[in-house]
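Sequence in, structure out.
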Amino acid sequence: MARRQIYMDHNATTPLHPEVKKALREGMELYGNPSSLHSFGRKARHMIEESRGKVASFINADPEEVIFVGSGSEANNTVLSMLMCPSKVCSCGNADMAGREIITTSIEHPCIMRTSECLQDRGVPIKYLSVDQYGKIDFEELAGAITGRTGLVSVMMANNEIGTVQDIKETSRIVREKGVLFHTDAVQAAGKMPVDVRELDVDFLTLSGHKIYGPKGIGALYVRKGTPFCPLIRGGHQEQGRRAGTENTLGIVGMGKAVEARGKEMNTESKRHLQMKRALKEGLAGSIPDIRFNGHPTDSLANTLNMSFKGAEGEAILLYLDEAGVAVSTGSACASGSLDPSHVLIATGVPVEQAHGSIRVSLGRGNTMKDIDYLLEVFPPIIKKIRDMSSAYKRES
């Protein structure tokens, strides 16, 4: 039995915030359909609109610009799928979006990458921007890639695996100067750093509830007022006809409470995480040879540290750490079932062998410096143990 149980996989998902738990317990009494006109329905509707106001305030949007969806992946799919809509009854059809080109990056979340591949098979041209060794896009490449056929550019705000933060404000300036719609996936950024849609000047922005200590199964999509839009799920008047289906009242209430809590805790927590991350990085660098840190050294999420170890498989490291009571990840939770090396690390130039030996530590509100001390105690012997069994590492050494 491990001496401690430590969760350090908060980019995969977060535990419910105590305030969210309390709100969910109270919200379980809200069983009325929010579309119903009777008092039960009106009460549920009131709670939904209250939460919509909280989410809007969190990102400096107007409440009518926030659409509740089932997840961040659904929000991203909704935005990209507009490029396949030939309908003239949609506002996107009026903007002649069908078949126009999408530009995205080579390090997006799998829900953007797989949807782009699917759309490409259906005839939508896709361009992928390269990134440098830290995961940053090149603004000259972006400007040169946009043509008269480009309908949408999608660039994630912060990478889920390596934590690198893009300059979304400058990206948006370049894109919108060319008269093209711009979307950013802010699922990992929101709740860890300020997200202001007015300052960023984006057309679409994606949020997820369970990444910010809210419930799973709920997300939100910001759509700038007046922007062409096409629903992914049709057949209902909910969300002003932009997302059909009876609203997930409980999830929405939980997400509203989660952003409210993030607004109070985020700044202090970010400073604390940065101190812990620096201590962990310096401690590991000083105790483990042949270690490589991935992602931008400064423009990165305060809670995220990704590293590769020569001569050690990521899955083996993860399992030994789990045995020691520490939960981390080998990369994106949505790609963890794949045996392929991380497309993010490969895009940044990490050799395939080292990409296979990568671990992501993502800190959360419950972690303390004692957790870092414990990880620094158990981590080096685990890497040594794995390398001692590795004939490849001995040959390389």
